[in-house]
């Protein structure tokens, strides 16, 4: 039955008229009293008990939440998202999961908004960002497994990880890159905007060493790192900050870059670390997902350092230093707990990428 506005108003008045105050101050309302009043006022209306009860409940809720009993505005159009249409959309995306909503709209004849509603509200599908990872070569899988097994046998101890440093370097650029295809200026007339970029990007290199206990660095550099610069400008300042227990018991990790694995560099490292060096031969190539500077620190720095516009190298180095100094011991502990989990995931996934399993 369709109730008229006059009947709706009468039902609401009858509802409150049937109310009685309880001893505790609350109110109770009689559904039967409302029905009797409605039947007396509209004797020709043929309405069932449950239909009346449901309709009264809707009216009272609408009045209490919106302070009126009128219905909200509707477009009056029937939905185009029938079961057949949504099944067609689902089939198309199963065949081509990277399809854009605009292309889906063109293929189905639906509006972009309808396609978006079908995906999220009906099919409960959501867009997910694709992660870019290093390409692994066939020999890498076994090397990654061997390294992870060695880690579990030799380094999987919180106290020892507090003495062991994992190291790497990264370049931080003062000015970002502008993609002219995605960059727009909205105006009533063409402002002929342009962006000046340096022929030679202004950048600074950052080297860090991170253990479960603390971080040594950042050590900044401005030129390409060769073996001599690595020893003189990075390793020597690093050695000067080591504690006795770190020199005596800890390990030192580095990747297989040429400057790191030159004979003169390895001999220099052995003066402090003897045979406790994790480098080429043991450390697997193309594995930034296993070392804390890469999977945590550099990403953390780049997410926070560039929140404000920077103009000089000094302005770039200051927030890098500040962010590193503000990393707490608790954060470092969580990072190395994460490293242990990554090691085990790598083994379980036979040396393949495992980020999606974390």
Description:
With 358 residues, the protein is α/β, with parallel strands linked by helices. It has three domains: 5-66, no CATH class; 83-122; 138-177 and 199-357, Ribonuclease H-like superfamily/Ribonuclease H (Nucleotidyltransferase, domain 5, 2-Layer Sandwich). The strands form two sheets. It has a five-stranded mixed sheet, sandwiched between helices. The chain has a two-stranded antiparallel ribbon with strand order 1-2. The chain has helices at 5-17, 31-41, 49-66, 83-95, 101-108, 112-122, 138-154, 158-161, 227-240, 244-249, 258-261, 263-273, 292-305, 313-325, 329-348, and strands at residues 20-21, 27-28, 165-173, 203-210, 215-221, 252-253, 277-278. It contains 15 helices and seven strands. Residues 176-188 have low confidence and may be disordered. Helix content is 49%, strand content 9%.
């Amino acid at each position: 039955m369709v109730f008229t506005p006059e009947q709706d108003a009468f039902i609401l008045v009858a509802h409150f008229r049937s109310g009685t105050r309880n001893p505790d101050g609350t109110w109770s309302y009689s559904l039967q009293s409302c029905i009797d009043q409605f039947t007396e006022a509209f004797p020709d209306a043929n309405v069932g008990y449950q239909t009346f009860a449901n309709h009264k409940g809707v009216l009272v809720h609408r009045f209490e939440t919106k302070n009126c009993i009128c219905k909200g505005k509707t477009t009056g159009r029937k939905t185009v998202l029938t079961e057949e249409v949504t099944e067609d959309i689902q089939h198309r995306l199963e065949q081509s999961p990277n399809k854009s909503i605009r292309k889906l709209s063109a293929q189905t004849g639906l509006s972009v908004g309808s396609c978006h509603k079908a995906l999220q509200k009906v099919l409960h599908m959501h867009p997910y960002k694709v992660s870019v990872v290093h390409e692994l070569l066939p020999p890498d899988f076994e090397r990654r497994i061997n390294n992870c097994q060695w880690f579990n046998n030799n380094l999987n101890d919180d106290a020892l990880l507090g003495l062991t440093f994992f190291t790497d370097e990264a370049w931080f650029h003062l000015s970002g890159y502008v993609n002219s295809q995605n960059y727009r200026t909205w105006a009533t007339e063409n402002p002929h905007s342009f962006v000046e970029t340096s022929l030679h990007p202004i950048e600074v290199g950052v080297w860090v060493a991170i253990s479960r206990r603390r971080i040594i660095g950042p050590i900044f550099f401005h030129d390409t790192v060769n073996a001599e610069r690595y020893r003189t400008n990075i390793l020597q300042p690093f050695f000067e900050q080591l504690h006795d227990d770190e020199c005596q018991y800890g390990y030192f990790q580095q990747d297989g870059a040429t400057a790191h694995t030159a004979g003169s560099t390895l001999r220099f490292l052995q003066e402090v670390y003897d045979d406790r060096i994790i480098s080429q031969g043991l450390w697997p190539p193309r594995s930034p997902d296993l070392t804390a500077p890469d999977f945590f620190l550099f990403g953390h720095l780049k997410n926070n350092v560039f929140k404000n516009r920077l103009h000089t190298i000094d302005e770039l180095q200051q927030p890098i230093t500040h962010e590193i100094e503000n990393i707490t011991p608790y954060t470092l502990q969580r990072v190395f707990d994460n490293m242990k989990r990554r090691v085990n995931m790598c083994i379980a996934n036979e040396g393949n990428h495992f980020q999606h399993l974390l």
